[in-house]
Structure formats: structure tokens, C-alpha cells
């Protein structure tokens, strides 16, 4: 008489009970929305889209779905993707591996965990989880996936996945046994993910999870987001409310551009010749002095200092220069000379070891018919820098808050005028010091040396590019 196979009983018990699987096998009690999402898949929902706030547990539930399906279906191809390798392997796949490690050892022994793949050992060709990065240049991440059993196409950070990937996956997504699951923060107001919660909503099972729907999000996080961005801001709506934030007409830089630049993967520009630094000098006690560094199209570092006198600040900047490898030292350091910046510029030029260039953002722009002043021109120049989608920003919450918080208007003469520091500080309660340092990096395209020599004298008027190209 054959011994009963305990795995058969295991599948019978848990195949249609993903919440029970999580409780008994993974030792976790899912939130109500997580249980509803898992149940929707078991019930046969083929198209599911989840927009959520930050930190509500979407990577966790994605991992539970994948593990539960792998262990309860002998034929299953589970493809997981994200816009960048960092989002895929450092976040979601790392979470998946963590939860596999929470299973009883007997179940862990059934699977083989590799760097980009998890397989059921006894059916490695028929039952597996495969991680594939979604790139515009290689849109086939979800293409050509077919199986006699269950197929799941799970897309994390779906707002950032290029449309070409979804277009290429149309054949895979059409199968009667295919479940497409889109998960993400609603950072982009276009594309398939946005459409599934709007004009395509009738064809998709949708979930909307705010920070207030999950005990996993702390009150401190919500309060910090409200203080940093303001409850009416796009960043608060996306990060806390899980809402698509319609950008207002007077916003210079939408959150979408900033988030995509943070997540973007581009080759390192280490050692490139066009290394530039920019320094925004604090004007008041609560403000920060900010030094930003750019190598090619990568913003490599943001450093902030508070309550330094001019000599201390000059010393910090000079020390940054002296301790940087010679091949990575900046060609020039742009310094906003309005207010206290003049003293720092004078001090650094007196030392003479770096090329400090004074920039007066209140002066006239090179495109005089379009912008009210150089400050306005530089802000829109930085927006163009982001819109080109060839740059990389560091992950810095203060930077995000500054960049998305500044507005502009049209003057009576039809020129674009960006808010002044004082106006912004009055409106949002702080000075956008990080953003002002970043936009100062764009000054190199708008100025030229009067004498043609490399070292510039801040007292000399800046000569514009005669073609007006900024």
C-alpha cells in the first residue's frame, strides 16, 4: 500500500486559501486589502491593478502571491518585473527571498533559489518564478510567456514601466490562464497603469490603498510628509493618499520627472571632463548652505550645512575640492552671489585652488523675450534637463520637496517669472535651498567668459551666448 503524499494534502488545503497559507506557512496575518487581492487571483480575476501609498506592504503581498502560487500549482510560470534592476532585485526579489526563508524547512527544501529565479526542484522547467527588468530598449520582459498551467505577470512600480513593454506583452497578457497584476505608487498621469484606474477601469479589478488604510504606515511618516510637502502637494497625494496627482498649471517640475530621474539607471560618468559643482549659500539662520556635484548627467552628491559662517563654509568647500581625486575635480564651482554668497566667492578665489564663478540669478537672462530673470531661465533649463530623460538624481527627500514645490507665473509682459526665495519661504515655510543649488548647475550653458580665459572674475559682466541657446 502506497504511503499518502503529504504534498497532495498540502495543495488541497492551501490552493484556494492564500490567507490561510500566509498565516500557517509564512507566519503573517495579511491586511484586509492584501487578503482581498490574493483572493481575487484565486477567484480568477485576470487583470488587477493596485495603486497605493508608500509603505503599505505591496512588495510583501506580491511575494506571498508568488510563493503561494509556486507551491500550490505544479504548472506555473510566474514572471516578475520592475523598471530598474534596483527596484526589482534590491526591493521585490529581496522581499521574496526573505519570505521564502520564513517557510518551514521542509518547504524550503522543495525550491531552488537563484539570483534571478526561483524554481520548484521537481519541476524546474514547468514551475518557476523569473525576474526580468523592463527596459524600453529591451521590451520583451513579459513577451512570449505561455503555459498549460497558471501564468502570472506581476509588474512592480508599474507607473515607471515603459509602454513598449506592455505593448510587447499583449500576446502573453491575452491568454485565458494569464493573470496580469500591476502594483505601484501613482507617480505618472499617463500610460497603462494610469489608464487602468481611469478610462480602462471597467476592464480591470482595481485596488486603492492609502496610508490611512494600513497599520504598517506610521503616523510619524504621514506627519512628516505633511510638514515637508504640504497636504495639498502632489508628493503628499502620491506618497500618503495613493492618488494620481494632477499637476497644476503653475508647477515647474512635476513629481513624475523627479521620481523617474531617481530610479533611472544610466552608466556612471566617473572621470568625465565636464564635472561641475554649484553652491547655494544660506542667507538666514534656518536656511542651509547646499553644495551639489554633477559629473556628466549624474548628480553624484548633495551636501548641506547649517549655521556656518562664511569662512567656515569656504573652508568646507575648499576641503571637498582638495580631498576629491584630481580627475573628478570640478572645472568650475558656480556660486550664487546674491546675499552672503559674495563673501564665499571672494574667499575661495583668494585661495586660488579652484575656479569659483559668481552667478547673480537676479540679472537678465540670455532669452530675454521669454524669461524675467536668470533665475527663471535656470529653473526651466533644469526642467529640460530632466525631460531629456538621460540624467540621474540621488534619492533625497529634501531635494524632491524643493523641486516639486516651486511655482511660476507670467508677467504682464508675457515673460516667465519663477517665485523668489522669499516668496517660496513665505508660502511653504522654508527656503528651497537644495533645488536652488541644483538649478545653478545649469548656469554653465548660459554664460561665457568675457575675456576667454578659463578663470573668471565675478565682477565682470557675464557675456551671453550670442545665439541665445540655453
Descriptive terms for the model:
disordered C terminus; elongated; Rossmann fold; 2 domains; 18% strand; 5-stranded mixed beta sheet; 470 residues; Nucleotidyltransferase, domain 5; alpha/beta; 8-stranded mixed beta sheet
Strand-helix topology:
Layout: H1 6-14, H2 18-26, H3 32-42, E1 47-52, H4 58-72, E2 76-82, H5 85-100, H6 105-108, E3 111-113, E4 117-120, E5 127-133, E6 150-155, H7 163-168, H8 170-173, E7 178-184, H9 191-196, E8 205-209, H10 219-229, H11 234-241, H12 255-263, E9 275-280, E10 288-295, E11 298-306, H13 310-322, E12 332-336, H14 341-351, E13 356-359, H15 374-387, H16 397-405, E14 408-410, E15 416-418, H17 421-428, H18 433-440
Parallel strand pairs: 1-7, 1-8, 2-5, 2-6, 6-7, 9-12, 12-13
Antiparallel strand pairs: 3-4, 4-5, 9-10, 10-11, 14-15
Helix pairs in contact: 4-5, 10-11, 13-14, 15-18, 16-18
Q: What's the β-strand tally?
A: 15
Range of helix content: 25-40%
Largest sheet, spatial ordering of strands? 3-4-5-2-6-7-1-8
Number of domains: 2
* Ends apart, CA distance between termini: 84 Å
Query: Looking at the structure, what is the overall shape?
Result: elongated
Task: Explain what you see.
By secondary structure, the protein is of the alpha/beta class. The protein folds into two domains: 6-216, P-loop containing nucleotide triphosphate hydrolases (Rossmann fold, 3-Layer(aba) Sandwich); 255-445, Nucleotidyltransferase, domain 5, CATH 3.30.420.240. Helices cover 36% and strands 18% of the residues. The protein has helices at 6-14, 18-26, 32-42, 58-72, 85-100, 105-108, 163-168, 170-173, 191-196, 219-229, 234-241, 255-263, 310-322, 341-351, 374-387, 397-405, 421-428, 433-440; strands at residues 47-52, 76-82, 111-113, 117-120, 127-133, 150-155, 178-184, 205-209, 275-280, 288-295, 298-306, 332-336, 356-359, 408-410, 416-418. The strands form three sheets. The chain has an eight-stranded mixed beta sheet with strand order 3-4-5-2-6-7-1-8. Strands 11-10-9-12-13 form a five-stranded mixed beta sheet. The longest helix has 16 residues, at 85-100.
